[in-house]
Design brief:
alpha/beta, 16-stranded mixed β-sheet, 18 strands, elongated
Length: 434
């Protein structure tokens, strides 16, 4: 009988049963955090099991969960950490349920609220004026474009053990002051920042320099942010982000230029840059210089280009990854813009030996053959891959690229990339240089 096993064996069984309860907080509207394991069910088996579970709250990672639709009677259970998990749209009634849990502010460990409207956010901010000393993970998102600005008193202005923090579509202009209290933070995601939440590159770099444990950073704007002053001078010394491994930027090139000119990230191994639609791709020297001086981002011997109806993503690998994503509204310029960007920093592509060109499998991809690029634009791109030996093209992208086998003026793809030996066009077979 399992009930006759020694306590230590039962604890090991409970460990296996609960699995890994770690909550992976990324961005709102993304993957839901995994639910804490169902320890409450086991407490009902017998008194011995109940006592054993309650005696090992840290080992078994016992949490009490509160949602927007299910008020939790917190007095029923011992004072375990509280997770607030609200994966559905939250209105003012939902805030009332959450406010009950927030009264135990010293026990709130994790908050995940996926979609809150403006009126409910105002009430939630009022309920979160006090400090949350046990808060480790915080995710808050909205689809309401009229949400209010989060006040300086939000979260009590302090979160000393916070590790994961993300906001989506919510203005928090006092974020730089707040985040200085979270010196243990490892992940920051500020997505679709509205104009009312704009934070300058200088202020952003300065506050992040005080976070020695920051490993992942995402900064993105809802629309085109105010452009930094072109006359601003770089600081005499750069802010060092000593363990930053992942950096994701979405906005205008001027913001990127000013921000990366103020930071050093010696351990960076992943960089994603999304240019908003009306960016002029004439000159991004400081961004390219930042890439070129980040030793862990090079050299690259593999590359892929992914096309969808609105964007191109270029990914360079070996063994780390640099990702450049271009978003566009009007057809006709996107491939030439990609070529222009990389032509400014040829060493990024000079070691690439394998290139794959394919469509985004997640969208119903349609290529406008008449209004988009001609073969000469593809040849301009291929000229940048001076070491390219192998090219793979997916079936739906073969038609616009296939003419480059001969070229409109007699120049072929194998002339543009002299090291190219093997081509594979899905549905058309393999071509080898003779």
């Amino acid at each position: 009988m399992i009930d006759m096993l020694p306590d230590i064996v039962l604890l090991e069984i409970f460990d296996i049963y609960r699995g890994d309860p770690a909550v992976q907080f990324h961005v709102p509207h993304g993957p839901l955090p995994s639910s804490p394991w169902r320890w409450k069910t086991l407490t009902q088996v017998c008194g011995r099991w109940r006592d054993l579970i309650f005696q090992s709250p840290q080992r078994l990672d016992l949490r009490v969960v509160c949602t927007e639709s299910t008020p939790t009677s917190l007095d029923t259970w011992p004072p375990f950490p509280i997770n607030i998990i609200c994966p559905h749209a939250m209105d003012e009634k939902g805030v009332e349920n959450v406010a009950v849990a927030l009264e135990r502010h010293d026990r709130i460990s994790q908050i995940y609220i996926d979609d809150i409207d403006g009126s409910a956010l105002k009430n939630l901010a009022a309920a979160m004026r006090g400090p949350l000393p046990a808060l480790t993970d915080f995710d808050l998102g909205t689809s309401d474009k009229s949400v209010p600005v989060l006040p300086e008193s939000f979260l009590g202005g302090s979160a000393p053990v916070l590790r994961h923090f993300s906001l989506w579509d919510i203005p928090f202009p006092s974020f730089p002051k707040f985040i200085l209290s979270a010196t243990r933070i490892v992940y920051i995601g500020l997505f679709d920042i509205p104009h009312s939440g704009y934070i300058s590159p200088e202020v952003m770099a300065t506050c992040l320099a005080a976070l020695p444990n920051l490993e992942s950073l995402s900064i993105g704007f809802q629309s085109l942010p105010p452009r930094p002053s072109p006359t601003s001078l770089p600081p005499p010394t750069r802010a060092v982000l000593p363990v930053l491994a992942s950096l994701n930027l979405s906005g205008v090139s001027e913001y990127f230029e000013d921000f990366v000119d103020r930071i050093d990230a010696p351990l960076l191994n992943q960089l994603s840059v999304v240019f908003l639609m009306d960016v002029v791709f004439g000159d991004i020297p400081r961004l390219l210089d930042f890439i070129g001086h980040t030793a862990r981002l090079k050299p690259f011997n593999k590359a892929s280009m992914e096309f969808s109806t609105q964007e191109i993503t270029m990914v360079l690998r070996s063994p780390t990854k640099f990702e450049l994503e271009i978003v566009r509204e009007t057809p006709g310029w996107r491939l030439s813009s990609m070529t222009q960007i990389f032509s400014q920093h040829l060493p990024l592509l000079s070691h690439v030996e394998q290139l794959k060109i394919h469509e985004d499998p997640a969208v119903d991809f349609m290529w406008d053959y008449d209004s988009d690029v001609d073969p000469s634009q593809w040849l301009e791109l291929f000229r940048l891959f001076v070491a390219l030996q192998s090219l793979h093209v997916s079936k739906r992208l073969v038609p616009p690229i296939l003419p480059t086998l001969r070229g409109p003026t007699g120049e072929r793809i194998m002339d543009a990339s002299p090291a190219l030996r093997n081509l594979y066009f899905e549905g058309h077979g393999r071509y080898e240089k003779r």
